[in-house]
């Protein structure tokens, strides 16, 4: 299970999903950049095989970035970042080995800037402190390799100059990525704090209005059902057994409506609203949400938003069967286990591709989130702390 981290992906998952094409372009450009620079510096290569393997290694870093940034594997884990970085480190060592004792200049080596580009690609997915640490370690590593190769460089300058030439691009790009990530994260956290304060203040000011609205709703119900009934009784001037039965039916209906409103939680309201918007409110089952302990009320705002978005997306899906939806919330120690079962009558690849952004957000908010699909049955499971 991956804990929540202060990353752009976890604070603003939809925004990072929208920007993933940029990560894909950057990852795709790395092996192309390596191949072009290798060709331009071909006179410095002593072992073409090792030069090719170095390009393959940086391609492995690109594949790692592309794979772990996929919505299917969100959130981007530290393990994925280390795999991408280790491939880049291997490319740096292989590039140095391919030109051993033949490399004349440090300035046309491509592997060190490539490491910096890998760290930039990691900026939306990993914490700022981790990016800076990756950059510092990579700069030391690149500087050490440069110092070992220094005797064969044609430029007569102190070894420290070659160390700086190799490590400076990595430090500049990694620290820039860390500063960018940290700035955006702080901005998002300030915005969320201000928004939460505003919502809390708005909620307190709307309490009286909500009370009046509920009161007006009860009065309207009485005017539509009870008042006409009393008027008929007064007009007829007698109370018959049929009148007593009708009075009992009206009382039971009114009492049931009030009990249902009391038992109605935010999750019930979300399902009802999504079904109404999709025009399928009359197709819902009697007990869509099974949450007798009202555990869903302990979810934080971000978790509620992720669940709401998924439910709305399900009702908007053309192959979703509304009366199949069941959501169960049950206690399990200090956690709450949630199971969502639905029928989506379409091929699995289509279902997963169309709902991938919502599954990604759910996986970010609930790290133990799992999706199982055996056409047409869809089952989601996740948990959260109370």
Description:
With 386 residues, the protein is an alpha+beta fold. It has 3 domains: 8-198, no CATH class; 209-263; 266-385, Histidine kinase-like ATPase, C-terminal domain (Heat Shock Protein 90). The chain contains 13 helices and 5 strands. The protein has helices at 8-11, 13-18, 20-40, 48-68, 78-98, 111-122, 128-149, 159-205, 207-236, 241-263, 266-278, 301-316, 348-365, and strands spanning 289-290, 320-332, 335-344, 370-374, 377-385. A 5-stranded mixed sheet has the order 1-2-3-5-4. The two termini are 17 Å apart.
Can you list the strand order of the major beta sheet? Answer: 1-2-3-5-4
Number of helices: 13
| Order of H and E elements | HHHHHHHHHHHEHEEHEE
- Round the mean pLDDT to the nearest integer and report it: 83
Number of domains: 3
Class computed from helices, strands and strand pairing: alpha+beta
Count the beta strands: 5
Helix content: 55-70%
Overall geometry: elongated
Q: What Rg, in angstroms, do the CA atoms define? A: 31 Å
Largest sheet: 5 strands, mixed
Low-confidence parts: none
Distance between the termini: 17 Å
* Beta-strand residue percentage: 5-15%
Tags for this model:
3 domains, alpha+beta, about 375 residues, five-stranded mixed sheet, single chain, Heat Shock Protein 90, 13 helices
State the gist of this model.
This protein is of the alpha+beta class and 386 residues long.
What is the secondary structure topology, with strand pairs?
Elements: H1 8-11, H2 13-18, H3 20-40, H4 48-68, H5 78-98, H6 111-122, H7 128-149, H8 159-205, H9 207-236, H10 241-263, H11 266-278, E1 289-290, H12 301-316, E2 320-332, E3 335-344, H13 348-365, E4 370-374, E5 377-385
Parallel strand pairs: 1-2
Antiparallel strand pairs: 2-3, 3-5, 4-5
């Amino acid at each position: 299970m991956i804990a929540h981290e202060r990353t752009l992906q976890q604070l603003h998952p939809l925004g990072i999903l929208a920007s993933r094409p940029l990560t894909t372009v950057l990852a795709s450009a790395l092996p192309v950049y390596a191949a072009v620079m290798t060709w331009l510096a071909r006179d410095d290569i002593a072992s073409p095989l090792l030069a090719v393997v170095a390009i393959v290694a940086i391609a492995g870093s690109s594949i790692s970035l592309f794979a772990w940034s996929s919505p299917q594997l969100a959130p981007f884990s530290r393990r994925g970042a280390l795999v991408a970085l280790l491939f880049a480190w291997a490319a740096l060592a292989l590039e140095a080995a391919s030109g051993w004792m033949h490399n004349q200049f440090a300035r046309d080596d491509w592997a060190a800037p490539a490491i910096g580009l890998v760290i930039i690609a990691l900026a939306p997915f990993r914490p700022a402190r981790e990016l800076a640490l990756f950059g510092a370690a990579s700069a030391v590593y690149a500087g050490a390799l440069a110092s070992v190769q220094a005797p064969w460089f044609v430029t007569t300058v102190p070894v420290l100059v070659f160390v700086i030439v190799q490590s400076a691009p990595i430090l500049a790009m990694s620290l820039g990525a860390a500063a960018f990530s940290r700035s955006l994260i702080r901005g998002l956290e300030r915005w969320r704090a201000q928004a939460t304060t505003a919502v809390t203040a708005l909620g307190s000011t709307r309490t009286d209005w909500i009370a009046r609205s509920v009161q007006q709703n009860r009065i309207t119900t009485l005017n539509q059902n009870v008042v006409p009934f009393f008027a008929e009784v007064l007009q007829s001037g007698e109370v018959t057994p049929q009148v007593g039965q009708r009075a009992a039916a009206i009382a039971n209906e009114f009492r049931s409506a009030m009990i249902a409103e009391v038992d109605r939680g935010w999750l019930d309201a979300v399902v009802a609203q999504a079904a109404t918007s999709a025009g399928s409110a009359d197709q819902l089952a009697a007990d869509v949400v099974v949450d007798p302990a009202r555990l869903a009320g302990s979810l934080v705002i971000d978790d509620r938003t992720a669940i709401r978005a998924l439910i709305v997306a399900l009702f908007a899906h053309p192959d979703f069967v509304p009366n199949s939806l069941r959501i169960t919330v049950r206690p399990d120690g200090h956690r709450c286990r949630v199971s969502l079962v639905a029928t989506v009558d379409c091929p699995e690849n289509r279902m997963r591709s169309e709902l991938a952004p919502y599954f990604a957000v759910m996986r970010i908010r609930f790290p133990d989130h799992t999706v199982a699909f055996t056409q047409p049955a869809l089952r989601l499971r996740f948990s959260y702390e109370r």
